[in-house]
Amino acid sequence: MKNINKTLLAAAISLGMLAGCNSDDDSKAADPMVRFATFNLSFDRTAAGMLTGELALTRTAQDALLARLAEGSLKGTEKEKAEHVQQIRNVAEIIQRNRPDVFLLNEFDNDGKGENTTDLKAFNDNYLAHAQHPEVTAISYPVLQNFATNTGLQSGYDLNLDNQITADDGWGFGNYHGQYAFAVMSKYPIDTKQIRTFQNFKWKDMPNEKNPVIDDCNNAKAPIPASRVCGGSWYASEVWDKYPLSSKNHADVPVRIKTDKGEEVIHFLISHPTPPIFANAAGHTIKHNRAEIAFWNDYVQGLNYMTDDKGTKGGLAKNAKFVIAGDLNADPQIGDGDLSAIQDLLNNPLMNQAITNGTLIPVSEGGPECVASKDTCTRYPNRPTPERITNSSGLQLDHVIPSANLNAVKSGVFWPASFEAGYHLVYSVIDGKPNIAKGVSSDHRMVWVDLKLD
Length: 454
Known about the structure:
- The chain is an alpha+beta fold.
- Helices cover 24% and strands 18% of the residues.
- The protein contains 10 helices and 13 strands.
- Strand 6 and strand 7 form a beta hairpin.
- Helix 1 (6-18) packs antiparallel against helix 3 (59-70) and helix 7 packs parallel to helix 8.
- The longest helix is centred in the N-terminal third of the chain and has 23 residues, at 76-98.
């Protein structure tokens, strides 16, 4: 982010002087309507600890920093920090406007192990607990859950075969362990003892999966290393035997929701598969993305091949209620990846077909407007169903998929058009150029689904 919209900044500062710390009641009574959401926040930073420092700032400290940014007295790392603070505030306002009850936060950096919730609490207390705009009210989440990640966790091997160890050689891409991690915030209790994670489950242990074969043999942008040949395997056997399926993690998070008829348990199935771009001659990211998505299709069908990090084997119990959520980095209609896995997932009869293929597919007004413009969302100008896109690239990458045995009644993508409230959170002019991504809030949009439990 090079700059910040001066009008928005001035408004944010003046609001900061007035805003109180009102928040929702942490206790959640029986409520038949529950909103599940996914949001890639773009809280990844260039170095470990940066996000921690930004989130730890009190409201007063934020205001002081943004005031100095507005007057133009900041440079270098201080300016970058102030711009990040404004980005975090805008993301917080998006959450306050949409008010999800249970949601996944993709790209929320942590220490790699996800063993504490200090940063989540700071985000809760220093940003979400303060109204970010006169049109919204503060919000608070009593339940905070962090997760370990494979991003930035060095493998010890030269995975990309370039004769050096870099970020490309982590089990999941990351410049440091914990970059691009994810977390959950919830109004409802999580049965933490029953959480299942699959950080260490091996890719080779999925049925029909094999060491990626070099099959893109004449691509100057993805040359075959001297140590490999067309038609051969990319990874050495020793590496393939250790390669985890999850580029971050796969987690089954049981959420306990009180209703008038008793307690419902909904399994929040969360992940963030690797994007199918920057592929090598074996198309490794394309095949990896497909496998990470296919895992959930197998899991909800109760297949028995997977083993979680506690050693428990098997998939989801029959008739269990679930919501699959995440930046899956896969559009069922268009894009760089193998579309078969996301299509199979959406077409699976265990999924709520009104959400995946029917009248309740999450849409927005802002998506079509962005695609129709000549200076934003330019990558896929002729894509079908632009109302479904969730990313500034013009793709439908972020998904919330409830099970067929859940009653979905409403859904949406928070991408306001220029004539709708909240447009300032997805569009700004920075250094004379339109910005619809991290310079304002995120390059992804929140996707939500309302479920009626009664």
